[in-house]
Each structure stands twice: as structure tokens, then as C-alpha cells.
């Protein structure tokens, strides 16, 4: 027997019998557990003086077309609600309390306002730089005129 087991598992170097795998052991242990409801049914049927029980199924079964119709109606009602309630005006977002900062309800006004502020700041910096350049040119021209007058006098 040991030789047969060793032949089945070529990886094992000794001739000891192979152990069953963990899944096989689990199957062996779970088999009695799975049979418990069946055994209880047999025991209950064989008890002397036991009352007869009537099993009433309480599961509610619907046909496949009814199932599809139900979910089709559910989907249609959901889409209708999304369209109707999504297109309604909201009193809060239309009020001055929400829009007093200049909003138009699209949330893009925030970015437009920031862009306008940045553009204004860039224009102001450009004007200041242009003013400095003009002042430098004016001082250079005045310096050149003064130098030309001195040369004429000399």
C-alpha cells in the first residue's frame, strides 16, 4: 500500500501514506452537517405521537414577464422623475441670497470673476511697467538734450 501511495505522489521522497488534502477533509467534515436537516425530517416523521405538520410555503413567486414589466415601470418612473424634478426651478438657487455675489446659477461665474480680476491685475501691472518705461525714456531724452546743449556751449 505504501508503494502505491508513493507512486501516486512522485514529489514525496519517503514511503509514508499520502494525507488527504484540506479540501477533502473539509468535504468529509461538512457531509454530516449537510445531512442534518434530512435526518431531522426523518426523526420527526418517526416520533410516536408527533403531530402532523402542514408546511405552507410563504415565498412569493412572480412570472418572468411580470418581473420584467415591474422593472420596466420602475425604470420609466425613475427616468420621468429625474427629468421632471431635474428641470424644476429651485427657489433657493434663484433667490438673491444665493445670487447676490453675481452668480448666474452655472458655477462658471466664480471662474469668470477670478479671470476678470486676474486680467485687471495684469492690465494694471502692464500699465505700471509701461509708465516706468516711458519715464525712463523721458529721463534719457532729457539727459541727451542736456548733453547736446553742453556740447554746443563748449
Short description:
The chain is 71% helix and 0% strand.
Please tell me about this protein's structure.
This protein has 154 residues and is mainly alpha-helical. The chain has two domains: 2-46; 64-153. Helix content is 71%, strand content 0%. It is built from six helices and no strands. It is elongated and about 145 Å long. The model has no long low-confidence stretch (mean pLDDT 76).
> Total strand count, please?
0
| Helical content class | over 70%
Shape descriptor: elongated
Alpha-carbon Rg, integer? 46 Å
In N-to-C order, the SSE pattern is HHHHHH
β-sheet strand percentage: under 5%
Question: N-to-C terminal Cα separation, in Å?
Answer: 131 Å
Secondary-structure-derived class: mainly alpha
Largest sheet: none
Mean pLDDT: 76
- Kindly give the count of domains: 2
Extract low-pLDDT stretches. Answer: none
Number of helices: 6
Describe how the helices and strands are arranged:
Elements: H1 2-8, H2 22-46, H3 64-86, H4 91-94, H5 96-99, H6 108-153
Keywords for this entry:
154 residues, 2 domains, mainly alpha
Amino acid at each position: 500500500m505504501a508503494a502505491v501511495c508513493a507512486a501516486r505522489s512522485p514529489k514525496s521522497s519517503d514511503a509514508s501514506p499520502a494525507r488527504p488534502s484540506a479540501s477533502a477533509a473539509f468535504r468529509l467534515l461538512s457531509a454530516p452537517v449537510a445531512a442534518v436537516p434530512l435526518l431531522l425530517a426523518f426523526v420527526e416523521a418517526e416520533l410516536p405521537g408527533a403531530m402532523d405538520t402542514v408546511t405552507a410555503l410563504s415565498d412569493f413567486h412572480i412570472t418572468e414577464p411580470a418581473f420584467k414589466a415591474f422593472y420596466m415601470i420602475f425604470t420609466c418612473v425613475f427616468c420621468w422623475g429625474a427629468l421632471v424634478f431635474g428641470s424644476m426651478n429651485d427657489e433657493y438657487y434663484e433667490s438673491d441670497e444665493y445670487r447676490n455675489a453675481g452668480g448666474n446659477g452655472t458655477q462658471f461665474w466664480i471662474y469668470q470673476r477670478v479671470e476678470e480680476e486676474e486680467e485687471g491685475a495684469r492690465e494694471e501691472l502692464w500699465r505700471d511697467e509701461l509708465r516706468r518705461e516711458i519715464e525712463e525714456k523721458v529721463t534719457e531724452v532729457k539727459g541727451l538734450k542736456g548733453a547736446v546743449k553742453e556740447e554746443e556751449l563748449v
